[in-house]
Amino acid sequence: MPGRLLPAPGPARTLALAQLANSVGDGAFLVTSALYFTQVVGLTPGQVGFGLSVGWAAGLLAGVPAGHAADGRDARTVAVLLAAATGLAVAGFLLVRQPAGFALVACVYAGCQTALAAVRQALLARLVEPERRTGVRARLQSVVNAGLGLGAAIGGLALWAHTAGAYRTVLVLDAAAFLGAAVLLRRLPARRGPAARPGSGGGRRAVFRDRRYALLTALNAVMMLYLPLLSLVLPLWVARRTAAPSWLAAALLVVNTVAVMLAQVRMARRVVDPPTAVRSLRRAGAAMAVASGLFALSAASAVPWLAAGILLLGAGAQVYAEMAHGAGAWQLSFDLAPVDRHGLYQGFFGSGVPVARMLGPVLLTWLIVDGGGVGWLAFAVLYAGAAAGAGLLVRGRARRSVAVPALPAPGS
Question: Taking the model in full, what pTM does it have?
Fold first, then answer.
């Protein structure tokens, strides 16, 4: 793990190490889970897909209450409990034998994952100075990608062995990784959030009444559709619509992982306030439009190497869009949240991930894999429109959160 990916020593580095631990486990789990559940447990692909959809629906409901709980309590303790609970949920997959049991464990797993993500964001807002948050968040994303890559390599060994024991070992590793993350999170300083502002009221419903933030969250959920685009739609597109070899789908994912790991921090340095965040989102919209055009064009070539080259160019534009979107969205999610409600607001903003994972596969498979080039055009318009809409919401109206007392920066 290159040291330059980690934040400077302090709470931010501890957060990064905790995310590295659970992302290694997640990477191994992601590349082996489908075969484990279908070939070892004996579930059908449809049962697995349904169970995961139900699970991410539960995840959608978990972020807001978890974030609200972190605002009113020691967020560190909430994060520790959620990390440990996620580890236990992963271990619970070892006991699954029937579809109903799988769906139940998937609900606990996805709910804890989503809730933990919200509380980690609240911890970041509480422990890191406002001007450093986007940069630190970018480093965390780079660390996550590095961990996912390492975990995927470990999972690849299990795929090579292709035994029930190897797949179960991956689940044990993932569970242990989350327990290790809980231990690391326990090392963070205990810091309660600032007292609620007089008259702020409303409890967890307050975020739903903030129409601008709610609309921004909805637009961000549209832009999060790159998640199923990478994991499902592009592999299907490569195999069914292009002359490129099917293994190129794995190469596209490697390009994405390595690019985010190496360039996300540099991209985030340009984003320091709402205006620069808006410009970053607009760049994301333009880049995704270019990527969509290139992916559509790849189907026009009957020459494998030419189709592969076009797909790689498209992957480059797509990962640029992903990084620009991440930097802009992180900045706005912090800047537009009230100082005393970062957990609640981050929990709500993070709901875009389970929404994209739950609805994206069906929507994008129908739109792109079945729709072809016209579908790519429609996706480009949808994505660029969401990016432009977010800019219109924020332009000239962004309110900066009051800085909360934070730990001194390293060396200060």
Answer: 0.78
